[in-house]
Amino acid sequence: MAEIGDVRRFKNKKALVAFAGIDAPPFQSGNFESKSRHVSKRGSPHLRRAVFLVANIILTLSHKDNSVFCFMDKKRAEGKHYYVYTIAGSAKFLRIYYARVTEYLRTQEIPVAASCLNGNS
Q1: Which of 92, 91, 99 has its CA nearest to residue 10?
Q2: H or E element: which one contains 73?
Q3: Is the pLDDT at 99 greater than 80, yes or no?
Q4: Phi and psi at residue 4, in whole multiples of 5°?
Q5: What is the pLDDT of residues 25-67, one digit of tens each?
Q6: Would the pLDDT of 24 be above 90?
Q7: Long-range contact set of residues 48-54: C-beta below 8 Å, sequence gap at least 24
Q8: pLDDT surpasses 60 at 113
Q9: How far, in Å, CA of 32 to CA of 44, rounded?
Q10: Which end of the chain has fewer CB atoms within 10 angstroms, the N or the C?
Q11: Are 102 and 108 in contact (CB under 8 A)?
């Protein structure tokens, strides 16, 4: 998660998922709109691998009360391929991570250094 850094630099959860490179960009031409799309892979490969491994561990070690596990289990029951539901679970994990960290940061007071208040750097 160190690859993400400060989540406040992302304007929303979609930006974080795009930074990880696990979003599927739209593919359309004229009236044609594709139903199946590949992962964009435009973001950080290290973060993409780390989040994929997190989703894999959630899948193997989690309980039924974990929302990411339930989501991936539902996708597996729908007959989705292993990589499809693992990447979907990775994106869900990142969305939940973004929401929890931003909520935590909103509730915490972040101290401002006295030198910043005086204009000294």
Answers
A1: 99
A2: helix 67-77
A3: yes
A4: -75, -45
A5: 766 667 766 666 677 677 888 888 999 999 999 988 888 888 9
A6: no
A7: 48/20, 48/21, 48/22, 48/90, 50/1, 50/3, 51/20, 51/22, 51/90, 51/93, 51/94, 52/86, 52/87, 52/90, 54/90, 54/93
A8: no
A9: 30
A10: C
A11: no
Q: Shortest CA distance to 15 belongs to which of 95, 81, 84?
A: 95
Q: List, in sequence order, every beta strand (DSSP E) within the chain.
A: 28-29, 32-33
**97/65 Cα distance (integer angstroms):** 17
Integer-rounded Cα radius of gyration of the chain: 18
Whole-number Cα distances in Å, 81 to 21, 26, 29, 107, 118: 19, 20, 27, 39, 57
Question: CA 47 to CA 55: how far, in whole Å?
Answer: 12
